[in-house]
Fold this protein.
Amino acid sequence: MKAFATGVIYILSFNKFTKMKKTTLFILLIVASFTTMAFTPIKETKAENSNKEIKLTKYKRALNFFVISDWGWCGYKSQQIVADGMAAQAELIDPQFIVSCGDNFQIAGVASTQDPLWKNNFEDVYKNIALQIDWYPVLGNHDYKGNTQAEIDYSKISRRWHMPDHYYSFVRKINDSISAKFIFLDTPPLVEEYHKKGGYPDVAKQDTALQIKWLANELSSKEQWKIVFGHHPVFSASKTHGNTPDLIRKLKPLLEQYNAQFYFCGHDHDFQHLREKGKKVDYVVTGTGGEPRPSSMNELSLFSNSTPGFSEITFHADSIRVVFMGANGIPLYVTERSYR
């Protein structure tokens, strides 16, 4: 079986088969070929519509915002490239705010509100005037290696950094008859792994049962749109992290019960759009803000790509449009749906 998986034995051992009858050799080669295909690992995927030009309609009356994640590299790797791409696109569509799905500060969070990383990693990187808008972040596992309260308290210092608590929500009107609730979760404490290993001092301080109760209450409200953000994926096809079983058990039932339409996250450093067959919740991974990693697909995948970039979200009338935007301003993928 191992030899079939690698596919090497058929090349190195070919001479051993040459003395066999041609019919036998032919059958063996056909069997070997199909067996090798069956055990070929999933390779890195490329943009499904990379050869197609995606034209985006610019709506006059719309709510636009960006989603970015896993960006905290002090301008290195792809962070500054993505930041510049965000600025260029912001000048075109005028987003109302930016959501960060965590790992805001690699590798070990911040020590305090006076940590130099605030300047080197955030203020000096996203300095373009078009990005001087409201930012709504959540905490990632790397943020939990530092002082999570400092990221909350920085809201009192910065005019654009808004993180009132470990988890929070707000509502925006899309038009006179449609509203959207935006719900921001604190997922690291919901993942048992971080309670079992050291290095995450603030995890044990969090009341996870209270957060889940709070989430159920938030999702039970009357807004037509319910958009949820967290750091860890519920579902992911990535071979780096992949699915989060604890969130499948704790979050997925609530998202479905209360008809949430989208769950946005990072943690895996790629673009992904996934949906379970017969279900209505769309799962979006947008972890390409600083260090993209190879992407892959599985049976839930609608799209996957590992290009530096961010997500551009547009609410218009009763519809939402999600665009995976490359840092160069070229759309990689677009999906639209109604809240119904």
Notes: The chain has two domains: 2-38, 63-338. The longest strand covers residues 309-316. The chain has eleven helices and 13 strands.
